[in-house]
Write a structure and sequence with these properties.
CATH class of the largest domain: Alpha Beta
Number of strands: 17
Number of domains: 2
Order of helices and strands: HEEEHEHEHEHHEHEHEEEEEEEEE
CATH topology of the largest domain: Rossmann fold
Helix content: 10-25%
Number of helices: 8
Largest sheet: 8 strands, mixed
Strand content: 15-25%
Radius of gyration: 24 Å
């Protein structure tokens, strides 16, 4: 069968577009390199978000592998494609490995350079240099945690070109079932040996135990872990989370009971596959996916003229990437500050409240929900919010 030339060209272009671009971090040669092969010259595989849905945000992705290999499919390519689905451009980092003779601080230089490169190229690629995140798995999670804590460290062998003048601090960090400690009983010994070399000291191991390096300047952090992981036990993620709390770094930790080490995104798994959705919500509500301006708001809610005893009023903006705000209602009143308030502009409202507030109403879980201010209201329940609108008083009619 012979395809028409136009169709053949279209298919060729589509296939070509599906292939990521390979970007050397140091086109003139990486510092400390032992050769010119891929294993000696770190690079990024670029997966730009589709133009129609691009949010302007980007992530560096660090596959795991104990600093001895790279799980570049389920902890690299699959993650990049998932991020693309959120409108986020992804750059999978192929960093240098201990099994090829590269030890700390080479890996730190590689990840710092990756963040700086993505930030340097952001304006020309239509991306926001203030929305550069990093996500990593297992040993790649440790590399992510180093990027989040040691971003100001300047290894002696680093280069000092224009790219290196930019900040290496990521704007958000996502260590996934991460290696964190290198100096206690929970340390992953293979990662420790590959990262630091066979002749390392305990002081060196403590220096890269990143729970000890968290400061108030560590970026907001999201962690995922499983309880059944015996390769890199949950104490690692918990220690980093607690260090974030001690330093008042915004952080969110999800520990699922089932699941061995290395589960990746687990999409399709009815239990573990829900964790990427929590990450998506966290990124959205932090304003990472869309830096939509938010507003403080307060007000009251009545049902059929009676103040709601308890419930939630949800503000969902038209932009699916913009933050969703949820106000808790107590004794008819609610209040949100500007940091947690709804996005300006049109919002779709949903109200959930106690079934006891509507005499005679029944509900399997004791809660009633409505997306209409009156029973005969047609279409969405829309509330347009402006900076001048600080108060919102609702009297909802609901059967």
């Amino acid at each position: 069968m012979h395809l028409p030339l136009t169709l053949l060209l279209l298919l060729t272009a589509t296939l070509h577009a599906a292939e990521p671009e390979k970007i050397p971090l140091w086109p003139q040669g990486a510092p400390g390199a032992k050769g010119t092969e891929d294993k000696d010259q770190p690079f990024l595989l670029a997966w730009p978000a589709p133009k129609a849905t691009a949010t302007g945000a980007a992530f560096v992705v660090c596959p795991g592998g104990g600093y001895g290999g790279l799980a570049a499919d389920h902890e690299g390519t699959q993650v990049a494609r998932w991020l693309n689905g959120l409108g986020v451009s992804a750059y999978v980092l192929h960093y240098r490995l201990g099994t090829n003779g590269y030890h700390y601080p080479i890996q730190l230089m590689d990840v710092q350079r990756a963040v700086r490169w993505v930030r340097a190229k952001a304006p020309e690629h239509g991306r926001d240099p203030a929305r550069i995140g990093i996500i990593g798995f297992s040993a790649g999670g440790h590399l992510t945690s180093m990027a989040a804590t040691l971003f100001d460290e300047k290894p002696a062998a680093m280069t000092h070109d224009d790219i290196d003048q930019l900040s290496a601090r990521p704007d958000v960090a996502v260590p996934v079932y991460p290696v964190i400690s290198m100096s206690d009983a929970t340390a992953h010994q293979g990662s420790r040996k590959n990262l630091l070399g066979p002749d390392h000291t305990e002081d060196q191991a403590r220096h890269v135990s990143t729970q000890l390096q968290v400061t108030p300047n560590t970026p907001p952090t999201f962690l995922f872990q499983t309880d059944q992981d015996t390769v890199v036990p949950a104490e690692n993620a918990v220690a980093f989370y607690l260090a974030c709390r001690q330093n008042k770094v915004p952080a969110e930790l999800h520990i699922y009971e089932p699941g061995p080490h290395g589960v990746g995104l687990s999409l399709g798994n009815p239990v573990l596959g829900s964790w990427p959705g929590h990450l998506r919500d966290w990124l959205r509500n932090r304003g990472f996916l869309s830096p939509a301006p938010r507003t403080a708001i307060k007000g009251s809610v009545k049902i059929n003229g009676t103040p709601v005893s308890w419930g939630f009023l949800v503000f969902r903006p038209r932009d699916p990437s913009a933050p969703v705000a949820t106000a808790r209602i107590m004794k008819g009143n609610f209040k949100l500050d500007a940091a947690n308030g709804p996005a300006l502009g049109e919002n779709l409202l949903t109200l959930s409240y106690s079934a006891a507030d509507t005499p005679g109403a029944t509900s399997p879980d004791g809660t009633l929900t409505t997306s209409h201010p009156t029973p005969d209201h047609q279409g969405d329940w829309i509330q347009t919010l402006t900076p001048e609108q600080a108060d919102l008083h609702l009297d909802v009619q609901h059967k």
